[in-house]
Amino acid sequence: MRPYELTVAEAAEAVRTRRLSPVELVDSVLERIEHVEPRLRAFTTVTAGPARRAARRAEDEIAGGFLRGPLHGIPAGLKDLIDVAGTATTASSRVRADHRAEADSTVAARLTAAGAAFVGKTHTHEFAYGLTTPQTGNAWDLGRVAGGSSGGSAVAVAAGAATFALGTDTGGSIRVPASLNGVVGLKPTYGLVPRYGVTSLSWSLDHVGPLTRTVEDAALVLAALAGHDPRDPASVAAPAVDYRPGPGTDLTGLRVGVPRNYYFDRVDPEVEASVRRAIERLEELGARAVEVEIPMTRYIQATQWGLMVPEASAYHERTLRAVPDLYAADVRVLLEAGELMTAGDYLRAQRARTLMRQAWLEMLEDVDVIAAPTVPLTAVKAGRSSVTWGDGEVESVSDAYVRLSAPADITGVPALTVPVGRDTAGMPIGMQLMGKPFGDATVLRVGHAYELTGTALGLAPAA
């Protein structure tokens, strides 16, 4: 096995036992980037020099007996919304062409303290305002969308061009591309991971989290990221938790909520079949399936848009007036539309979110996690704009991809996507596991138990 093929946990063990040096690992990943990047276009910039310097520093520290932990010397990609001092944060936009970050974001600083080596900044749908990341190709089929807005991060991890990566999730932007590219994506509980130094899409919905090849890896990265930072007003001082899942698969006594409404409505039959088989697998591991009713479903889309759109427009107000032509047409239309929304619309969305969160907390009293499809269909062909469901309903691709992921952003609950198979076209299918607020460790435990049954997809063919 070549070093770039290793998971975080495998690479960490090889580095710890001196069977692999961080320099060899980083060089392997950089060579992989050089090989696949011309086709995939996952990165806005590759930071080979800083990555190699970090690898040499890690090698020297480890040789001197100083091991920072499981991320020491591990190659990482960062979504290009995340500030790294002295490096451009372009948000994949011409608006940011001349930008350079003056200081590290909290998450970048924490990964640096953990010894990670940043191999590059990854593409996002412009300013994270979209669900396809059009400049990046899917790691399983270049002719299909990567998913968004953390499409570059998902593709890099799926192709072995980063051992792990960070993304952001406002309406599903970690989980959607993770599902479409066959990797693991974790949206932590709102407030668990600080967002200081991360370009915002929507202050009240934004989350930062890891994309990895395994659930165990996601837990290792989350442990380095979580913790209070007063510079982020939403950051919370959560109790210290060991996020690493145990080695076993026994889920005896765990209650898995299976939605009787919403999450299996207008879902591709192959996606539904794969997710239901995965839920049956959880039952075989000892879990008990419990039917649940998802509350307030008719308000989900309106609440998501009612919060995100005006907040995004407020964030971009100055540059939208100064350089409107530098925005892509799809993003500019959304930003301009947001300026037409009234304060009353926004306040009603906030009130609906409060009621929805309360209803979800009541529903989660009866289960430990909820299992459902991550997205209702696999990666579509690039350029496809809509999908027609069996009942004749026509839905835009973006609305379809955000429909099942938005509730976890609105309510702030932790949500994990894990690969559960592929459709007849060979495209990955993901299952979403959602838990109680700050129940991230439970969600990871369930996902890891499922993963140990042998369902990981491995590296994508990178087209």
UniProtKB/TrEMBL annotation:
Instruction: Note whether Transferase occurs among the keywords.
Output: yes
Gene Ontology molecular function terms on file: transferase activity
Domain Amidase: where? Answer: 24-444
Pfam families xref list: Amidase (PF01425)
Superkingdom, natural source: Bacteria
The alphabetized UniProt keywords are: Transferase
**Annotated protein name in UniProt:** Asp-tRNA(Asn)/Glu-tRNA(Gln) amidotransferase GatCAB subunit A
The organism encoding this protein is: Streptomyces albireticuli
Q: What is the lineage of its organism?
A: Bacteria, Bacillati, Actinomycetota, Actinomycetes, Kitasatosporales
